[in-house]
What does this fold into?
Amino acid sequence: MTAIALPYRAALRLRPATVVSVLVVAVLVVALIAPGLLTTRDPNAIDLQSTLLSPSWSHWFGTDDAGRDLYTRVVYGTRESFGIGLGATALAMVIAIVLGFVAGLARGFVDTVLSRILDVAFAFPVLLLALLLIAIRGPSLGTVIVAVGIGSAPGYARMVRGQVLHVRQAGYIQASHALGHTRWAVIRQHLFPNAMRPLVAMMTLGIGQSIVWASGLAFLGLGVAPPSPEWGALLDAGRAAITTSPWLEILPGLVIVVATLALTSLGRTLQHRLEGAAR
Amino acid sequence: MTVPTAAASAAGRVATEPQAALLSVGNLRVAFGGREVVKGISFDAYPGRCLAIVGESGSGKSVTARTLVGLTGAGSHVAADRIELDGLDLATRSERSWRAIRGRDIGFVLQDALVSLDQLRRVGDEVAEPLRVHHRGTRASRRSRAIELLEAVGVPEPSVKARQRPYELSGGLRQRALIASAIALDPRVLIADEPTTALDVTVQAQVLDLLAESKSRGTAIIMISHDLSVVARLADEVAVMREGEIVEHGPVDEVLYRPVHEYTKALLDAIPSEHTRGTRLVRGTSAPRRTRRPIDADRPLLSARHLSKVYRGPDRVDRTVVDDVSFELFAGETLGIVGESGSGKTTTAGIALALIPPTAGEVDLDGSAWTSLTPGRRRPIRKRIGVVYQDPLSSFDPRWTVGRILVDALAKGKRPPSSRAEARDRVVRLLEQVGLTAQHLEDAPLRLSGGQRQRVAIARALAPEPEVLVCDEPVSALDVSIQAQVLDLLTDLQDELGVSYLFISHDLGVIHHMSDRILVMKDGRVVESGDADAVFRNPQHPYTQRLLTALPRLARA
It folds into this structure.
């Protein structure tokens, strides 16, 4: 019956993986806000004298078929890739919070109907939905954001609904009702903030996920089109020269992997911490 | 199996001639990450006798129990001069050789049978698990042995139950299945860690009888418990643990009835019962209660008429949880509702608080409509009735500090504070009233101890200055000494403020200590009601009689 409680601080110890993730995300944030700090070149400067150069001191990631510096393009592409990731995740969250709260609070018939719709939407492949939207609206940054956002919303919505159902069982919700707070006050003061807690971490995970999806779409030529330096678009552009200049695929691909890993690792750490604090 | 009578269990307690110790522990020390939780304790267990290790949370008693089966846990450091089982050294065992001993020579019964049994496996397979692990018999013979074992521990229809999953069984049956599994290989030593803590009184009595029977067959039992009255029923010898040390150790009659150590005395005094009514439970403050405010028997603050609550289950079958319950709670009075789990007492409390709408019947608050009002009309008078829940942790928003929780409650009260300074002053006064100080203002409830949290819960309930406080198992999650402090606090507050309590508990001792009148509930109905002393001394209903016989208690000298 005597559980040995871990000291509170022990949970806050930084693991090396967390430190690396934070550093990677910090570099990405710099690239996002001030790409000029990380490179002095122009991402769109064409130099036909030096096309398809392999990586070297002067061109860290090599150059592409138009002689543009690949490293510079990756740095400038952060803004577009992250923009899509943030935008799509934010859109997904807004949809998820609205649907999840309506379903979780209404219960009964409304909940059943909404949950079934969400189940169907969840089973519907994101890629297919994206293709459909792009077929209608044509490929553009906005369309990719909307497509990925709507595609990932049902998963989050189900989670929000679960959170709402979980939190509304909590003793403090009943205690607050017993003090004479109105239903709305209880939702605003206790239910909403507590149900939202795990979503912060989920968002971090979601951004990484959205970046991967958007890159996939771009690689298929359905996302942001070249000459945009969006990471997926870089992959698409480099495809033609893959046998002669493989770095055009490998290096941007690695950047996507490292960025997603860092975001995911950070998201997991946040998740564990928040869960620890909630106990 | 015939259920052993009280005489049989008494016979098992007759002191046997001292023989060689079966399990002998000398100077046992256990540390977790440099923090020593067991600080050099020694004890012996003899065949056919029960040693009880008693203590409160954090005393190191459960760690001791786990160490005896080699399951101290990760990050632990165990040192001992001697851990011997019948002359065999256990102190230096590897995990592998432990496995040969666990189950065969030493059986282990844990507190919570629901988490200790694998939910996905049939009860029979779980019971036969030790046989399988130690390669005894064939699959078919193990299956029939499991049924025999279930029958031996008094499980009705053992062949049916063996095919069910643990969650399909009641708590009492699960605990018996766990004991059946522990005695499957007829171990010579049985270690039972809080074997009856999660159980109702009547089921608890059956489990204790079962352990007594095992003892009379020659098993050495080491029972870990926080409950001295449970110990009185089974143990021959008691060791009282506190902060990793044994402070008192001796034959059960000595320790429980002629305790020497101050801590043992304080623990015994802290147990509420019929003898403690009108006195304080915390030792050293044994002054009688202050003059109590008179009960106004002409003014029913709560009056409940013919309440019933029917829930429709997922199988579309209606279940009547509360069935035609009526009562009155007078100004300044404590009305106790006692019953076992599933008796409908918590639902009754929820209806009285107007948080659960009754299917039929109504409750009036101070002579005016209460549960029949619309939520909007009810809200302005909510401040007149407050609530304290069992689990003081889940009843606080984890993001809020103690100060914010109390300010929020004050704002909903009869006299909302008009300024921040006033709010702060009154919150500090509330904290002092419940025995805390201003230094707790900025604490998150998460960081407080169980007793402190329950004090904050009481302060929150009192903040709106209610006339009625519904206390739903307010001390059930607390250690006995903390429970004593909280019960003392509640009686003091009643004397000071004249507040009425609707006091709900499964613990008959607590109910008798606190209540003026009581209702005994079973299966949603009130089976008996009346003056607390009268009901306890002369119970009329067979169920109440059964409850009181099953209640382990200490005979006071």
Summary: Residues 1-12 of chain A have pLDDT under 50 and may be disordered. The first helix of chain A runs from residue 16 to 33.
